[in-house]
Amino acid sequence: MNTENNMTNLVLxxxxxxxxxxxxxxxLAGVSxxxxxxxxxDTALRCEGVALDEAQRRNLAAAALAARVDITYDxxxxxxxxxxxxxxxxxxxxxxxxxxxxxxxxxxxxxEVSEITEAAMRGELDFSASLKRRVALLKGLEATALERxxxxxxxxxxxxxxxxKAVQQAGLKTLLVSGGFTFFTARLKQRLGxxxxxxxxxxxxxxxxTGNVIGGIVDAEEKKRTVERVCAELGISPSQAIVMxxxxxxxxxxxxxxxxxxxxxxPVVREQASVALNFVGLDGxxxxxx
Length: 290
Description:
The strands form 2 sheets. This protein has a 7-stranded mixed β-sheet, with helices on both faces. A 4-stranded antiparallel β-sheet has the order 2-3-1-4, with helices on one face. It has 290 residues and is α/β, with parallel strands linked by helices. Helix content is 38%, strand content 23%. The relative contact order is 0.16. It is built from 11 helices and 11 strands. It has helices at residues 19-28, 54-67, 99-105, 110-121, 127-136, 144-152, 160-169, 182-192, 220-234, 251-255, 267-272; strands spanning 7-13, 36-41, 44-51, 70-73, 85-88, 173-181, 196-205, 208-214, 241-245, 259-263, 275-277. It has 2 domains: 7-77, 2-Layer Sandwich (Alpha-Beta Plaits); 81-289, HAD superfamily/HAD-like (Rossmann fold, 3-Layer(aba) Sandwich), CATH 3.40.50. Helix 3 (99-105) runs antiparallel to helix 4 (110-121) and helix 4 packs antiparallel against helix 5 (127-136). One of its GO terms (cellular component) is cytoplasm.
């Protein structure tokens, strides 16, 4: 985020009936003075020509957090037409769950697996090693458990369908790149009309999980390579990609993008992303591109 003490723009976004809160935050940002504001929607307010020093930014951030409002500093006023690709992580980004944790729940091991998942997403464990360790715990589980997780537990994140329809209508391509599993990415590709997917494949023999992954692991480096590969195929630069994620294994692919979006993300990801959406849905990127 922009942290210089000069003129910038910011977008304030909330949920529900939040107009009064957004106006109060705009006033705190000094919009009643030389800056101006305009409504992008009932839940999004753009403030232009704002000048805040570091202390004022901290005060504004604290007030926004208390009001459950997201702030994005946007000096560049990017447009949808600046981008050609939206790349997304799956677990806890496009969808609300960590699929491997829910699969483990069918094995009575959710707490143990979730603990490893959380540590990996915070960047405290090597992702590839942690995934192999978690998948090994699933050995012997009937493969029908995957279908149960998809049907009974998988839900799209807030604003996901609205965001996807808008970017697809604008002609952007979509990529779902996941350290999760092809069982789920394949179904989401068909369901949502996604253009590209890439994920890990669970080995299944005689209707049961073997505890192994087939082929290489889709880790942070492979996610980055996948974004680069798809951009090359489309004949575009990674700077024309919007990349969304929540965990440490998303940072490498986010770092090469033109807009990196931390969605309900771990602190290490929020700190490095150009946009952090903590409260609004995935469609929170749309007012930033208006």
